[in-house]
Design goal:
2 copies of one chain form a homodimer. Chain A is of the alpha/beta class. The first copy, chain A, is about 35% helix and about 25% strand. In chain A, helix 2 packs across helix 3. Chain A starts with 6 loop residues before the first helix and ends with a strand. The structure holds a DNA duplex (30 and 30 nucleotides).
DNA sequence: TTTTATATGATTGGGGTCAATCATATAAAC
DNA sequence: GTTTATATGATTGACCCCAATCATATAAAA
């Protein structure tokens, strides 16, 4: 009857747990007990720990890997803040025509757009291009949507395809509209924290007639290292932030560039 | 207190259920009740119906979308046939060097290879290229693996990327080994049922030094319309079928081309 | 119209899941 | 070495999930 175990082993076991869940997509608690050879209580404790780090989502009876995907129903039910992202997504989807070619970026906000897009029933021949695995997964099989995925190097953290190949693949396309995410916005414009992402987004700008950035208010006044676009370069900002919040951050947009969600 | 409803409405509701689960990835039973406004009993009945059609996987407390992905633990636990695919996958993974560049095709068999690959701990700089969203999802974040995804049009049924762009993207690569799936094998060779897939695989053959096809015994003597490769063209067949089974189907392979799983 | 088939919701019993609590043995800190 | 902190497994009670059964109202068939 072992009662305490070195911290190191605990961490190793939790990493193992993360890998197990990632590999199988879903694991019931009892199964985890078997594989890790620990009691139910310990498994549950491990699950809350791993979930806190944001890599899995617990369900009744087990746990899911969230491959960078926010399982809407679960997270909502778990009492989290009512998602501004959902409202942003609704607003973005309203911008999308019934037919044409649009691009969807990676990131949880744009993933919400993909989700909301599946609500639309009036789509006929909408071509959606994305570099987001999550968006592709959600939109795969949606009626009225022809889905294309850009190639590229897989970035684990974003579950997105980036790099030279992705940029090269962009050259084949011309979009009616593109919906992009960002990690920070301030007076100067939109910025992102990863060079790969920023480079990709910069390469995308000239390929789209309309460029819509979708950022929730938490991104306000956050400066991240890589500049992506100035306010002049984008067609619209879709956000839940109010005008006064924007002005306080030094952002002043003409009415036709500001879409309040 | 409505007691019976037209068949048509039942079917519509079940399609709706499939879409709901697909969109959210996971839904608890209670949530489904709310959204479809039916009782728990009906939801459970619908779940078994939809699951029988193979689009979702039930879990304790809800249901998962299986985006063309076989949730190993769940399906194994549900008493299904002991997967020959797993043994094929083990055998395939043993062929993969610690470093180099390999290609993984779409299909559940190759997805099993991806899963098995995550078991390997000795990988250092293995470059994996795939056109399978499922494989990408599984391998994303695997240690020692640099993952690339080919671009292309998303085929719903296979959850794979195909078409002209995928073939074009192939041109940038040269593989040490490629692991491909097929839907039929007979005396003439390997065949597939979809033109897009067959075309893509034919384009891949010259890009790989070793071409390994992975097909389980159920594919024996099944003729599907689109020829992909003759036995001369491939480097190895990885299968659980025995030599005598192969011979009975008119397939005779040199020892170095036959890997028994 | 009459008959049959069936989709539905309610109920019930059995079992599984979960969070909280507790004693304990061992790691870590002193 | 002594003390403190903590990771573990067992237990408990409440809650939830599930399959099976049943009566019923209505669709579908005759």
């Amino acid at each position: 009857m072992v009662m305490r175990v070195p911290q190191e082993l605990v961490d190793l076991r939790r990493e193992e747990l993360r890998r197990l869940i990632r590999r199988d997509g879903f694991l019931p608690v009892a199964e985890i007990c078997r594989r890790l050879a620990v009691s139910e209580a310990t498994v549950r404790r491990d699950l809350v720990a791993v979930e806190a780090n944001g890599h899995i989502t617990r369900t009744y009876g087990g746990a899911l890997a969230d491959y960078n995907s926010s399982f809407a129903s679960v997270t909502e039910r778990s009492g989290r803040a009512r998602p501004a992202k959902a409202r942003i997504a609704e607003c973005a989807v309203a911008q999308i025509p019934r037919t044409g070619t649009v691009f969807l970026d990676a990131g949880t906000t744009i993933e919400a757009v993909a989700r909301a897009l599946t609500h639309r029933r009036d789509l006929t021949r909408l071509v959606v291009v994305t570099n987001s695995l999550a968006a592709a997964t959600v939109l795969g099989g949606a009626t009225g949507v022809e889905l294309h995925v850009l190639g590229g190097m897989f970035l684990n953290r974003q579950a997105a395809l980036m790099g030279a190949q992705a940029i090269k693949a962009l050259g084949d396309w011309s979009f009616d509209a593109a919906f992009l995410a960002g990690e920070g916005m301030d007076a100067a414009g939109i910025s992102n924290s990863h060079e790969h992402i920023a480079g990709f987004q910069r390469a995308l700008l000239p390929q789209a007639q309309r460029v819509c950035f979708c950022l929730d208010a938490s991104k306000l006044d956050r400066a991240t290292p890589h500049r992506v676009a100035t306010w002049r370069q984008l067609s619209a900002l879709i956000t839940d932030a109010s005008t006064s919040q924007l002005v306080a951050a030094g952002i002043r947009l003409p009415a036709n560039k500001y879409l309040h969600a």
